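Lecture 7, part B: from sequences to assemblies.

Below are the input chains for today's worked example.
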Amino acid sequence: MLSKILQLAFLLLIPSFVQAQKSIHLKKQQSNFLFACLNTQVRGEYLFQDEQNFYLDNTNVRNLFMLRYEHKNRKILQLGYVKKFALKGWSLLLNTESDANIRLAKATSMEVMPLNLRVNLLFNFTTKWDRTSIAIGSKNLAYGHHPKIDAFFNFTPTLAKLDLGFNRDIGIFTRFPLNEKLDFDGSLTLGGFLGKPFVRAANDDTNKGVNVKFNPTSYKNTFLITTRVGSPSHNRQELGVFSAIGNIVDQQNQNETAITAKFGGEYIYKFSDHLLFLQKLSIGMYHPNSQPNAAQFRTQFMTSIDYTFRGWMVVALNNALLHKKGKIDGTSTTYGLLTTTAGLILNPNLQARINLRRNYLDGYANDKFEFFFQVILGLGQRP
Amino acid sequence: MRYLILLCLIVCGSCYTNKWNEQKSTVKTNYQQKGVKNIKELFYQQPQQSLKFPLLVPGKTYQYDIAEKSELYDNEDKLLQFETITFQLTDSFDPNKVLVDVYLWDKNKNCLVIKSVDLLRITPALDTRGEMQYAEYLLEEFSRFGVKFRREHNEFSVILRSDDPTLKAYADKIYRVDLTNNCLDPTKWEIQVVTEEYEDFSARLKGDMNYNQNRLLSHGWFYVDKELYSRLLTTKNPHLHDEHVFNYPYDSLSNIAEKTIIDFEQLRQPRQYKIMGVPLAIGHKKEMPLRPIDIETGNKWRMGLLGGDTLLTYKSVLEKPMKLAQFHQEGFYDIDNPKVFNYEYLKHVDKMQMYSLDVKGTDCYVEIELTGKHAPYKFVIGNIDFALLEEQKMYGINVGVNVYPKSQRYNPQQNTIAFAPDLVPEDRKPYFLMVDAKTNAWVNNQYKGVEKAFLSYSGLNKNTLEIYLLSYERELPLWYGKVRLSGGFRELVRARKNLYAK
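Predicted structure of the full complex, as structure tokens:
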């Protein structure tokens, strides 16, 4: 079924898009680019209810090494225009994440240190029509716009991640103008297929040493359609409505699936190149297929502020509220998550950040305040 | 059902493209609308409301044509070798546009048709006020700009009188038609019909150079009716400082213009702060080898317009008088009677200063000043949005104020953070001027042999800016500078792209 939808979508898309042209250097420029990025963090937490309430550890911290290869298609540059539809370039992103669990305060030995490898491949196509593009592969979902001043290094959560459990998926993505004032963003994806890493290496069983395991994720007929209609991103103020409908991998139990239908609206205001103010609201239902009684109505609200001072300092504040109401039992739970980050750009490839995270309201078992010290080192060429 | 709705939305939505003829016009006043009416009156007086002009065709023996030539170029039967051009007024009631159908005819009555072309689109616009208009008029009138029509958007069609499959095959290869104004002479317009031919494209793709697949099929100049042109000019430029500005001979006008002090405050917002940069190279100081940098300079280099002297460096080109092929009155290059320029003054240009301008909504609009302690002249390039510069493509800017590019699409891209030249807001019009270093008096760059500048980043990181100055007729680069931008400013540019261009 899904393959048929993809085929149909692809066939209908091909004749529909097109592009423009410009002058280029006579001598061909570099078209292959490599960028490596190391993102490492140290974490501490303060548990409000615990007697020994201060810990310095790395629990739930993703130390990440990323390798990004980007290729720009020389053919399209040499032709100078696109007749109908052409491959603009492609990129390969290798992510190695480590969820280190080293409790400096309590533990005496390393307990678990899983190392996950994720592979993200993306093909970008351009068309003869202006501002009309298609991408196939792994990409951020078109679940509203979520611009960030410092997109590459800013790891504050997005509504897609909080609402759907993932903000990156495999599928087909498109953007084009509906008219001068409205753009359409859409994606048809595999519904959280990327939830599990491609390879996992861990010393889960200390007697056997490090165990390397491939994760051939089985496809469970999941899919997700996201749409967004709203102001184009070049506007200073953006207004948009978005939706996500599908049968996705369950956020709580990765082996199960859930039906979700979400609708939302967003307002984005950009003040010059320095300040970004973003608000998003989504409502909808979430229905785990394995637990029909756990179906919920969900409302999610997110506010985000990004600020940069003359390009060498960035500050971001992000607050998310989630309200869950059981469809059957009517119980309500509300979660609050406040995230702040302050980064010092020592040079374009070296940043030091302090991130603070505070869980609040009644939805969490532990009322806690966490802080992270983060160092990000980049090497190579990035856009 | 929902998939169907989604896909219908995609298909219908993707049909949207920006059309010039649906754009809000640059003609804004009643006076201008009267002007449009006057222009139409001129057509009404002609048979079939048409103006017909013969094309002056260079022919096969002319070896300095602007691009590679198609096999069919100047063929014996003169198939698709257009000899006449006709402007026929359409029945449009748009009071702001002069819409004509353009017909190109060959000897065999084969015809290329471009429907609904707004003649005001290729009429120069004066963006300055007061005395600066003298200089701007000179720069606008004697450097050409034009519009291109694209096959893939059905912006023109070819009507053949025979079923000859070879002819049809060539007609199908036509993918660009360029209509250009004022080729070094007001009222001398130009038409180029270009095919795309792929015979050796694979080899070109593997090579180091970006030579494309363009082949010139038909090329010619024509003189438009002077009365028509005069009415177009006055209609598009209602705020003339001197109503006789269009009537001065070139040299007289140049003398008047060179007495004008350029008031940069009128052209831009105030400077906010100086952008720190580390100069990495000045071409002539490092004696860097001089090479063509884009397809146009590449073609002209290959054609030998420099008189065969190709072992140049950025230093040597400034040390001796440089002979550059010039145009005849009719528009042909004349290599035996070159113009001679002395570029020694550029030796003293060794400073690149950049200032962020106080443009609403961004810090990334920049003014660049190329100067030097002993430089007699300085070059000022302003209102450049650094978020629009790229590493694969060069941003070209002709000398003048908001000079339209040599060739731009008839149907422009929708305005984003990038603007079509005709629709750019008042406080963001790019400019490039050569002025006296001490007095800011305008200097006629044509006399000094400089015509264009290119700006480009040197890599994907976009933290190093390269600047080129090009010679008269864009035959070779003369001056090169490379500067590393401060990390903070680079991050601001990156932030602007993240916020507005993703």
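Note for the exam: Confidence is low (pLDDT under 50) at residues 1-21, 52-59, 101-111 of chain A. Keep this in mind when comparing with the next example.
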